[in-house]
Write a structure and sequence with these properties.
The chain is of the alpha+beta class. The protein has helices spanning 17-31, 53-71, 101-104, 121-131; strands at residues 13-16, 36-44, 48-51, 74-83, 87-94, 135-140, 146-153.
Length: 155
């Protein structure tokens, strides 16, 4: 439904990065429950971010569900949170099979799928991040896992 809306509405409010980190840990435990995947959150940031917490948690869950689909039931998934000059960066990394550059170039397009789901998860991620004034990028190579960098302006 979020993707079908012409303009995504977010209602950002200030949140401590440490509180966001705790919620990310909780969300990852829920996504990877009953798997051999070991999610890890590395918090190297401080301060506040203005985010719509429900929407931002949707970003986290969509990226985690994609990693779960790529990893099967075993592997590693790490979220590293770091401050930059005027933003906060969330790096989501898995050690799955990765994707080729040609596939990576299309990952944020609607209906791009690996055969599971509708192929809207990453398109929704991009729209939510952009609605916060941020950016999302992917870096992947076959056999090297996937790395998604979500950058959100600092409060």
């Amino acid at each position: 439904l979020d993707y079908a809306r012409e303009r995504l509405i977010v209602s950002p409010s200030p949140h401590d990065v440490s509180d966001i980190s705790s919620l990310i840990e909780k969300d990852l435990q829920e996504v990877f429950h009953n798997t051999l995947i070991h999610p890890n959150v590395v918090l190297s940031a401080s301060g506040k971010l203005r985010v719509d917490l429900d929407r931002f948690r949707r970003v986290v869950r969509n990226l985690a569900v994609n990693a779960l689909a790529a990893l099967g039931d075993r592997g590693h998934f790490t979220v590293t949170i770091e401050n930059q000059a005027d933003s906060c960066c969330f790096l989501f990394e898995d050690d799955g099979p990765g994707v080729s550059e040609s596939v990576a170039d299309r990952l944020f397009e609607p209906f791009t799928t690996s055969g599971r789901g509708a192929g809207l998860g990453l398109a929704v991620v991009k729209r939510i991040v952009q609605a916060h004034g941020g950016d999302v990028r992917v870096n992947s190579s076959p056999g090297q896992g996937c790395r998604f960098l979500v950058e959100v302006p600092a409060a």
